[in-house]
Amino acid sequence: MPSGSQPLPGPLSKAVADLLSSNIASGGFRQGTIARAAGLSASQLSRCLSGQKVFTLDQLDAVCQALGVSISDIVGHADQLSRQRIVPANVIEAQFGAAPPADLAAVARKRDRESGEDIDGP
Questions:
Q1: Residue 80 falls within a domain, yes or no?
Q2: Cβ proximity of 80 and 89 under 8 Å
Q3: In the chain, how many domains are there?
Q4: CATH number at residue 66
Q5: Comparison of pLDDT for 106 and 119, the residue scoring more
Q6: What is the number of alpha carbons within 13 Å of residue 17 lying toward its C-beta?
Q7: What is the pTM of this model?
Q8: Is 19 among the domain residues?
Q9: Average per-residue pLDDT in the chain?
Q10: Strands 118-119, 110-111: parallel, antiparallel or unpaired by DSSP?
Q11: H or E element in which residue 119 lies
Q12: How far apart (Å, rounded) are the C-alpha atoms in residues 82 and 9?
């Protein structure tokens, strides 16, 4: 990654942002109020919540504290949500420069080291 560039938000980061946005809305908070309490600018928080930027751990911790939620609860729940999502092949190709195998079941098959043939069974 070139110097100064930011990582693109992945499924976990997006799920964290969605959960925080929901907590802000359901709690009747304003983004600006949470941003100030967390030591961020309103635009920094907005970019993180919209998926344009990734939270640092310190930023995430500060936002969670401002909302009165546990960082481990947010990350744990986001992890569960992000693992349920299916990433389309075109997104994988765009991020990694290669398409996933056409037959994903073939990837999971065991192969004999010598013959290279599929092995039946667990």
A1: yes
A2: no
A3: 1
A4: 1.10.260.40
A5: 119
A6: 19
A7: 0.65
A8: yes
A9: 80
A10: antiparallel
A11: strand 118-119
A12: 12
